[in-house]
Description:
This protein is of the alpha/beta class. Helix content is about 35%, strand content about 15%. It has helices spanning about 60-70, 75-85, 100-115, 130-140, 150-160, 180-185, 190-195, 200-215, 230-250, 265-280, 290-300, 305-310, 330-335, 390-395, 400-415, 430-440, 455-460, and strands spanning about 25-30, 95-100, 115-120, 140-145, 170-175, 195-200, 220-225, 260-265, 280-285, 300-305, 315-320, 340, 360-365, 370-375, 380-385, 425-430. The longest helix is centred in the middle third of the chain and has 24 residues, at about 230-250.
Amino acid sequence: MSEEPLKAPSHKPDTVSLCADPTAASYTDSSDDETSPREKTQVNSKGSSDFCVKNIKQAEFGRREIEIAEQDMSALISLRKRAQGEKPLAGAKVVGCTHITAQTAVLIETLVALGAQCRWTACNIYSTQNEVAAALAEIGVAVFAWKGESEDDFWWCIDRCVNTEGWQANMILDDGGDLTHWVYKKYPSVFKKVQGIVEESVTGVHRLYQLSKAGKLCVPAMNVNDSVTKQKFDNLYCCRESILDGLKRTTDVMFGGKQVVVCGYGEVGKGCCSALKALGAIVCVTEIDPICALQACMDGFKVVKLNEVVRHMDMVITCTGNKNVVTREQLDRMKNGCIVCNMGHSNTEIDVASLRTPELTWERVRSQVDHIIWPDGKRVILLAEGRLLNLSCSTVPSFVLSITATTQALALIELYNAPEGRYRQDVYLLPKKMDEYVASLHLPNFDAHLTELSDEQAKYMGLNKNGPFKPNYYRYQHHSTQSE
Length: 484
């Protein structure tokens, strides 16, 4: 985690006209100006007002959304039923910062069933499902989030979760590191007393390792992102399905024959490329890592430099976790109608700030769809203002999120109940045995039956019959896109 000053990813809410700022781009928008949730006084049916959501009256609608998600998250529900008797999180005060969707609501309600008290906020200003936030507030979870927050709202919501009288967090569940960063910077005394941090994104994990390297991580942290059940399932299969959903809903684009460049061939990039290729797109890849580049080549993708192909592309998709992967100079060279979007966690990959200049006109054509118009009439289609496409513009499959959520719940239980000294002030990977347990909980959905080793086979392989079945250094690889 760097020592840079705190700043939320810059953005602008739908209802703000940028015309008042002489240095900003002109911007046309037809949405009505509504009262900020911060200015409303709302109470749930129990009389509590310890929340801030768009509209508490949407709670019943949100409850139905959560019930739909539960249907495809049976493993998480199974964990809830198995463990709610012993309450392994009794006394845990969890402050969370994730996407607030029906799927994460199933996780939050599982944590509550296991004994935790929860306060929650959003890690992305566009991904919150307002009705789901209302449903959580109705059952007594202190939620501070709504879709379309401003930069100031974003940090205000995080602060309201952490800074409350008579309640102090002892566990952090984060997605992206913003909450961890805020507590570390603003509430160091709280940070030092936290028993553990669970982080699920590439960006957040990177910031934790930075903090650890600087000798400033004073609590144990669990890197859930690099657990097998997160990286090889959520990052790969979730993105493989949701990339198409996000693009179709926003642009109605036809993929067959389109020239697409995917920046980054990690698990997210692999999933995106696989889906796009399957629908007939002509896909090329940019990479900095020779191993990932070689994988892309073996999967049938041409590895290129963005500068050399950008003028010919119909779509540019970033999946790197880096910053300024797509620059203003490259945006200037794109052809008319090029679609630009980001599948990484942070909105740093596309240099959106460089597009807010007087000579460019911003035209909001749909929710999360902006046409950036150059003086010669050229238009580039920017989705979600460079934020995470799938959660900003569509939904993601409940089943694959069940895998991640079960992993997060087990990581919290592990850190909260660990005897003193088991985990030092460092970043840890989830134990392999726990990864295997998460996977086993999901197999009944497919009526899948595992083969059991005989005593002789177990001895020959040097394994315990009950696992773990692979050493920690084993790399679970997906097969080439042709066979998926």
